[in-house]
Amino acid sequence: MNGDSVTLRPVREDDLPVLEAFLVEPELAGPFQWFGWADPARFRRRWAEDGMLTPDGGHLTVAAGGAPVGFVAWHKTGVTRAAYYWNMGIQLLPDVRGRGIGTEAQRLLVRYLFAHTTAPRVEADTDIANLAEQRALEKLGFTREGVLRSAAFRDGHWRDLVRYAILRDDPPA
């Protein structure tokens, strides 16, 4: 990680410009996360309403060396009200990708979710061509569960996603 200390923290108001930039600057979002223009004020409204932390999910700032470099997010999903689990994602600024920061941020998020909720699993979906994210998830001990065919629409085409999951009782990576 080149000496960068990776931390997660609640989103602060001064972090919002970083999050908002992912919604209006395609080159920041990257090839697997750009889904078209989106309302840049939606993060600010959510932050004002609930600090971007609810019982059903949330966003945390990823900081490296104290500076905001992206965010992790999770939302509740599942088959019944009594049986839920988390689906998580990450978005980082281009200049910090490929340095292990994302892997560490996701490790911290999984630890947090298992420590503070009763969910038995955390899953993550990524574009089938996003090999870097697949490697990161595998380093963390996630298991590749399968391919979700035509599950995401991006850049005029339906894309396949790969689903990964880690269970609370899985051995640590």
TrEMBL record:
Q: Which UniProt keywords apply?
A: Transferase
Keyword Cytoplasm (UniProt) = no
Gene Ontology molecular function terms on file: protein N-terminal-serine acetyltransferase activity; protein-N-terminal-alanine acetyltransferase activity
Q: Which residues form a coiled coil?
A: none
Query: Source organism's superkingdom?
Result: Bacteria
Gene Ontology CC terms: cytoplasm
**One Pfam family matching this protein:** Acetyltransf_3
Q: Which InterPro entries match?
A: Acyl_CoA_acyltransferase, GNAT_dom, Ribosomal_N-acetyltransferase
Where in this chain does the record put each N-acetyltransferase domain? Answer: 6-169
- Gene3D superfamilies, A to Z: 3.40.630.30
PANTHER family per the UniProt record, alphabetical: N-ACETYLTRANSFERASE DOMAIN-CONTAINING PROTEIN, RIBOSOMAL-PROTEIN-SERINE ACETYLTRANSFERASE
Q: What is this protein called?
A: GNAT family N-acetyltransferase
- Top-level taxonomy: Bacteria, Bacillati, Actinomycetota, Actinomycetes, Kitasatosporales
